[in-house]
């Protein structure tokens, strides 16, 4: 039997008061940061984003034709299932144990408190309400014109998002209690489901896209292919937990049926909470049983457990550290002093790359295939241009999240980094060099394959290799500068993170558009002002020089952000 013990209502009231007090503190901190001169630029950008978003929702979205309510319901429920599929695959392949995704402070003060695990689960769910409300408001602005009752839409979307968060955490807690054999089986099963979903999307994409279409058409039709997958019968059967809430969002009139959907939607939340508590209790029992089994057998260092896997990894890191330390100390004797400091930090980052080399390699296989996909569309002109565009997009949008082995990983070690006797520029160079080199390897491999297939010429390869390399340097420098100016914890949530994600994405798209426009203007200037024989060399030299100048300015800006980083006010609390 699962231990579904509950604390007294007084305990839950106290935890709710703690959640409200934390929310009030975070709200005051947000207002303080908004008024801070150090963050005035972020405040202006965030306000501009909300203004444009509301203008777009009120005027643009309201003027378009209303979508089919049934299709909207299918996409909403099916989209939740697709996200759960992604999270399920990620959980079974992850070796990282999370205790209800609590911060270190919460683990210290609440994990050791004499309260039931059920209370901790309810406390966690109370904390995700604000994030769900913010996401609901953003979606309601976009979908309000498609339904007759926006209030029902808001309730249905909010319940769907909250239910998704609870079920996501339930699956995570359940997967952490699997044995090694069960985990291997689940990896095979969930990977098979993920591959089947991807193959279905590819099949739907091929069905709705005429042969020989440009890659842009494939990109646009990919959303339709994902929508078809979300609407298929298999996915809809899996979306039964969201059936009531998704039906509530497209309510056409208030009657007994809509009241029944409302009751079922709200009632699904307590059931999901009980399921989460049961999964958490089972996971706790299984982990305890695994520890007792290893203790009785005397296999403390067994490689068949996650903890032993981590221990063996650390032992391998220690051996690698000893060898590489001797190598680094030998090489550093011949290095200039400024390069020597950065080399030590690069060596430190290489330990993480060695530990997660398989994950990093897999993270770049999919972008490489995506960038090379235009080569498989027969009869398409300018395949080389599409490949280069894909590399630029992946460099700016996919590489930074996949390679968080820079300042973004070292938030808890900022005090140590600030105590090192290093110049700011040397510190920045040591932190971002390794992720930049990994990104360059991805670029060079993709460009080499595309060049062999399309034959663009040596000049094209040299020009775009040089500019894309500068793009990689500038991208990681900008990401780290933004993080140092507005740092956040890895699993931070709330309105700040929602604004940050949207503004950063739109900012990257704007930068890509401006870069393309600048290159076109520079090309037209070269054609008008120079003889034909000098157009291509001057254009290539000028384009590479401008991109590397911009990248160098961003690196210097990151060094300035690191110099002004203040541990007393810039470090976000737990």
Describe this structure in words.
With 574 residues, the chain is mainly alpha-helical. It has three domains: 11-64; 65-294, no CATH class; 352-563, no CATH class. Helix content is 78%, strand content 0%. The protein is built from 22 helices and no strands. Helix 3 (69-93) packs antiparallel against helix 11, helix 7 (150-175) packs parallel to helix 12 and helix 21 (495-529) packs antiparallel against helix 22 (532-563). Keywords: Membrane, Transmembrane, Transmembrane helix. The chain crosses the membrane at residues 40-62, 74-93, 121-143, 149-167, 188-208, 258-277, 356-377, 383-407, 428-455, 461-484, 505-525, 537-562.
What does the secondary structure layout of this molecule look like, with pairings?
Blueprint: H1 9-35, H2 40-63, H3 69-93, H4 104-109, H5 117-127, H6 129-143, H7 150-175, H8 180-208, H9 215-231, H10 233-238, H11 243-249, H12 256-297, H13 306-332, H14 337-355, H15 357-372, H16 383-397, H17 399-402, H18 414-419, H19 424-454, H20 458-485, H21 495-529, H22 532-563
Transmembrane segments: 40-62, 74-93, 121-143, 149-167, 188-208, 258-277, 356-377, 383-407, 428-455, 461-484, 505-525, 537-562
Keywords: Membrane, Transmembrane, Transmembrane helix
